[in-house]
Specification:
CATH class: Alpha Beta
Strand content: 15-25%
Number of strands: 8
Number of domains: 1
Radius of gyration: 17 Å
Distance between the termini: 30 Å
Order of helices and strands: EEEHEHEHEHHHHHHHEHEHH
Number of helices: 13
Largest sheet: 8 strands, mixed
Helix content: 25-40%
């Protein structure tokens, strides 16, 4: 869940189409007076895809065509991330859950299967524990475990958790490092460097350069103790059918972390994805998509 930090950039309006291989139209909806960007395609049982820390909807570009053939597929930028609004609030786990519940209400979705990657897995775990009646199936992809600081093997993530620099200094530093910082961050979460093309680097750099992104990211990092206290200790209470998917080459949380989650969550299953790191759904969609479709079938 690496930080794609904000540079000194001015805010731009939401583009009409998603900058990916499929050029899907971007929709917006108001949730508690905040504009949220999302994709919505296909018909069938609803599935909501939730990105990780510092990420955005682009992390799910290779799921759009595959999953929307049999499901209503909804992919959002969380509040404080990507193209969605970034209000000046504390981004606590409870705030994110209330936002997510409001997002489902705004789209008139009473119940859905939730798929979360990294920090997004923490969000969907929180939904399953707090609003179990709203969650059908649960998929955790290289998800947020308990004892995050202790379990990560990534010095970069450890530094992000421990960071106490003021927002203005981080913005300034990021302004001068630009694409180089983006490449280093993506190099931590993607196993195959050949996938980090100039187009991918440019897109991710634009995402982290969006105005006002740094505040939410710092707030999310400060809120990790609240995740530990409120949800990490309750993983054994999850009752929804749960699938855990893990990249075999994950440098942030090794596969044993995923196996430990499987041992804690009753009845859960585990799938290891070879040749992939922290975002296997993007790096190896030819493996991940069939696994998702089998698990999510009605």
């Amino acid at each position: 869940m690496p930080a794609l930090f904000s540079a000194c950039a001015s805010s731009s309006d939401i583009p009409p189409r998603f900058d990916s291989i499929q050029r899907l139209p971007i929709k917006t909806v108001l949730v508690a007076e905040n504009r949220v960007a999302y994709l919505d395609s296909g018909e069938g049982p609803p599935v909501i895809l939730v990105h990780g820390y510092g990420g955005s909807i682009w992390q799910w570009e290779y799921q759009q065509a595959a999953l929307s053939t049999s499901h209503r597929l909804i992919t959002l930028d969380l509040l404080g991330s990507g193209l969605s609004d970034k209000p000046d609030i504390e981004y606590t786990p409870q705030a994110l859950l209330e936002f997510f519940r409001g997002f489902m209400d705004a789209l008139d979705i009473q119940r859905a299967s939730l798929v979360g990657n990294s920090m997004g897995a923490g969000v969907v775990i929180g939904m399953a524990l707090t609003y179990p009646e709203r969650v059908d199936h649960l998929v955790l992809i290289d998800g947020l475990p308990d004892r995050v600081r202790e379990r990560t093997t990534s010095p970069m993530l450890q530094r992000a958790i421990d960071n106490h620099l003021p927002a203005w200094l981080m913005r300034l530093g990021n302004y001068f490092t630009g694409r180089g910082t983006t490449r280093r961050i993506l190099g931590e979460v993607v196993h195959d460097p050949a996938l980090l093309t100039p187009a991918v680097i440019d897109r991710s750099t634009r995402n982290r350069a969006r105005a006002r992104a740094i505040g939410p990211m710092l707030s999310l990092a400060r809120s990790l103790p609240l995740w530990e206290e409120g949800f990490a200790k309750r993983l054994a209470e999850i009752r929804q059918p749960t699938l855990i998917i893990w990249g075999a080459e994950d440098r942030l949380f090794p596969p044993q972390v995923g196996r430990d989650l499987q041992a804690i969550i009753p009845g859960s299953s585990f799938a290891l994805v070879p040749g992939a790191a922290h975002i296997p759904q993007w790096e190896r969609p030819e493996i991940v998509n069939p696994i998702l479709l089998r698990f999510l079938q009605p």
